[in-house]
Amino acid sequence: MGQEERDRVVATLPGEVTYEEMAMPEGDDHQEPKLLAREALRGYFKRRGRKAYVGSELPVYYPAERRFAPDLLVVLDVENHRRKKWLVSHEGHGLDWVMEIHAGGDRKKDAEFNVSRYARLGIPEYFIFDGGRLTLEGYRLATPDARVYTRMESRNGRFTSEVLGLDLQVEGEDVRFWAGNAPLLVSEEFIERLEDQTMTLQRRAQEESRRADEESRRADEAERRFKELEAELARLKKSQG
């Protein structure tokens, strides 16, 4: 098959998941953690200047495998542009990291079927966030050739992703990513932090201005008193002369 014919075949592959393939809608408990995690990871790689594709619910095609669409996926060291699908044979690279977000119903697909499937496909790391139970599970291939996952152990509630170079933990109703001791913030959190810093600086400036006014008032009072004493001294000297 020539390249031109191959490109035509790739273009005809569906870029959307069909209604039959879709899971039942799970509402904000499913959408919010996914969108926040995607934004945090995209911002992280952008600030580091590292090429990475971060997608959500993108149809993925592995050779001889039924397509699937993870809630969140990361592929490192590839161009970051919009895609309608991820075709492994076309991209030349499989997925590096996957997270599924479970918000209700039967956990068997995420906790059993996908654990087996993603390991068999050679996806190095797989995480499951259960928004109902507020729990996080992590799985990793012990070696590049392994095709069975090893379950990760958390440390003080945090899991370490060797693929991302980040830590993950449940925080509130979402998943928080950490680079060392620094949390990855999303836009809204950046804005809130900047607003807090702005208000703090404004209060500090007002306090400094108030202190400056008070010091100026005291200086004026001291100068007035000095002139009064100077005048009184001159008067006394004159009266004695």
TrEMBL record:
It comes from the Bacteria. Residues 22-166 form the Putative restriction endonuclease domain. InterPro entries: Nuclease_put_TT1808, Restrct_endonuc-II-like, Uma2. Residues 201-223 are annotated as: Disordered. Residues 204-223 have a biased composition (Basic and acidic residues). Pfam families: Uma2. This is Putative restriction endonuclease domain-containing protein.
